Amino acid sequence: MGLLSLGTPLPWPEAKPLADHVRSHGISQFLSLWSKIKDRKGDKLLWGDEIEYMVVSFDENKQEALLSLRQAEILQVLANSHEQAASQAPDMIDEVPTFHPEYGRFMLESTPGKPYGCTSKELCKVEANMRRRRRIARSHLLPHEVPITLTSFPRLGVTDSPFTDPPLEAKGEASRSLFLPDEVINPHARFPTLTANIRRRRGAKVAINMPVFHDTNTPRPFIDPSVPWNRTLFPEDAEAGQGAALPDHIYMDAMGFGMGCCCLQVTFQACSVSEARSIYDQLVPVGPIMLALTAASPAYRGYLADVDCRWNVISAAVDDRTKEELGLEPLKDSRMVMPKSRYDSVDSYISTDPLNRPEYNDNPLPVDEGIKERLEANGIDPLLSNHLAHLFIRDPLVIFSEMVDQDDEVSMDHFENIQSTNWQTMRFKPPPPGGQIGWRVEFRPMEVQLTDFENAAFSVFIVLLTRAILSFGLNFYIPISKVDVNMKRAHHRDAVHTQKYYFRKDVYRAKPRHHTREASVAAAARNRSTASSRAPSPGAGQSQSNNARQTNGHSTPNNQRAAEPSPARHSRAGSPDFGPVEEEYDEFTIDEIINGVKDSDQDERSGFPGLIGLVYNYLDSLNVDVETHYELGLYLDLVAARANGSLITTATWIRNYVRSHPEYKFDSRITGKINYDMMKKLDEIERGIVEAPEFLPPFYAKRRQATAETEK
Ligand code: ADP
Ligand code: MG
Ligand code: MG
Ligand code: MG
Ligand code: MG
Ligand code: MG
């Protein structure tokens, strides 16, 4: 969550006329910042994660698991304890993790007290940091409350019995939802206003429809009996029966269904703006793969869905587009048709690296033309201008009356207003005023995992992959429209195993067209040598391939990144080596993308090393001691196992649990008792009290219990 300004938020009719003011000053603020920081260089490779929790309140008598709405009290207690820690050990305060509010009043977010470095030793400390945060959160809750890292709460918005503690009715002015009381929204004025203004701007409630999972006893068509079709409390109540609620779908009608989902985010600092732009681009195609691999949310509003992940739910939950912008009516009052929600996948690559071929940016990219012209007139290159002018097609949703007039030389508030309400799979974050923090890139698609072991594993994997990308100059570019196809496929039930995904065949940066296995092996060898030299010459080949350790004078990733791309690399870009874009990519299973493609004379993808292979190549180029290598290997093994199916995803675990519960009637319904038993079980699995061998590696429970001992 971005910054929480204080003040009086304007209702939509008063905010709307100020949209151009905010956009225009937002760009002035960006330009003013840009002139100061465009040449900023040498920032360290720091990174940090964000983990979101749901506070679940158990009622043992009624055998119910409810959502606790005590966020404000809990955060206050956590802040007090943080302050106490600060006064006791002022030098150590950076080490103390921090907790933040989120949209849902049943949610908490935690981050490390200060960002981590990227040395392999430091990566081994991430899990302990996450464990510590969970322990702190847990110890500040009431005895019947537990923080669970669950992406979607299966009974959020059910109407047959309460799902909140305390019990509440859905009749709030902000959401006007048939299912969600406004009290589940963080009461800070920003959030109810955001909710109401999205609805007002759109001209209707948001309409989220997730396909129901048709089990053996689920009626066809499925017309949801739990929708109060005939309610007449708000004019919007009629929408459900007028087509907003689709048959065979789980219908949801409020922002809270989306923003009430939890996720795992990772932010990286880059050494320069150009490095940040490269990382941003290279991670774009990785996004849908990691969404499918971390899938953890197969249940909504009391039903099993036929999807495994949250992304489309949130996308629809904040979709403020008017009928005209949606293309359902001819343009009259709205400025343009917008193909996507504010919460969606990335629409354009932004790196000026010549490897970013213009053909890859093949998505429609509506921009604010005036803003684009202004940015370009001020010396911003077309790729970055397009990116910003695309974000700035959106209206600001929450404007505080006290914040309308700002000094554009010092404030970034108007810029952040638009930037932070464009929720995409990646976010490009300019340095905030103040000077301590550099250019950053945020990786946002992953679903939060049940255990800190898994959260650490996926975070560390992405960090190491980023290091490998920079160190070897890897190239993952495919047309961005294909990334969107992958995004759609990633939503299918069991998308890890049932779908194929577009991915680049030859991921090495220097890339002559080769169609033989010998050529790919040579390319792989050439790549390994680049780990050491950092400046591959076109002739670099087999002879250097085993010399990584010897020729690598640097032992840490921090040093490795210092070199700028060599002219040799750049000259490739314009060379005739570049063939048709369509020949650069192919379809892969996630197992193949992660674990590599088996050698075969018949398969032209043969030799594809897999992202794990690339990460190991990178680790091999460092002088990692045996113990560290082993620890990091445990994380990489988890990622590999989830990809090859030897371990199931969280979503599959949840679906299997529901379907094997004695009370389940194979009608897609998740009753209160099923939910209660499942939450109990999830908590026990997390604590290592019961084993889940199909889901977590065999050592997990013992290891978790051992840390619990040492933490006492
Ligand atoms: P947001 O909610 O806007 O994404 P947060 O402040 O909640 O932002 O989280 C940002 C993440 O970035 C945290 O994990 C934090 O540790 C990390 N972080 C903070 N400073 C830096 C930095 N200089 N470089 C990289 N990561 C950083
Ligand atoms: Mg958050
Ligand atoms: Mg945050
Ligand atoms: Mg945020
Ligand atoms: Mg958030
Ligand atoms: Mg974030």
UniProtKB/TrEMBL annotation:
EC annotation from Swiss-Prot or TrEMBL: 6.3.2.2
Biased composition (Low complexity): 519-535
Domain of life: Eukaryota
Pathway: Sulfur metabolism; glutathione biosynthesis; glutathione from L-cysteine and L-glutamate: step 1/2
Gene Ontology cellular component list: glutamate-cysteine ligase complex
Molecular function in Gene Ontology: ATP binding; glutamate-cysteine ligase activity
Pfam annotation, one family: GCS
The protein's enzyme class: ligase
Catalyzed chemical reaction(s): L-cysteine + L-glutamate + ATP = gamma-L-glutamyl-L-cysteine + ADP + phosphate + H(+)
Family stated for the protein in its record: Belongs to the glutamate--cysteine ligase type 3 family.
Official protein name in the record: Glutamate--cysteine ligase
Species whose genome carries this gene: Meira miltonrushii
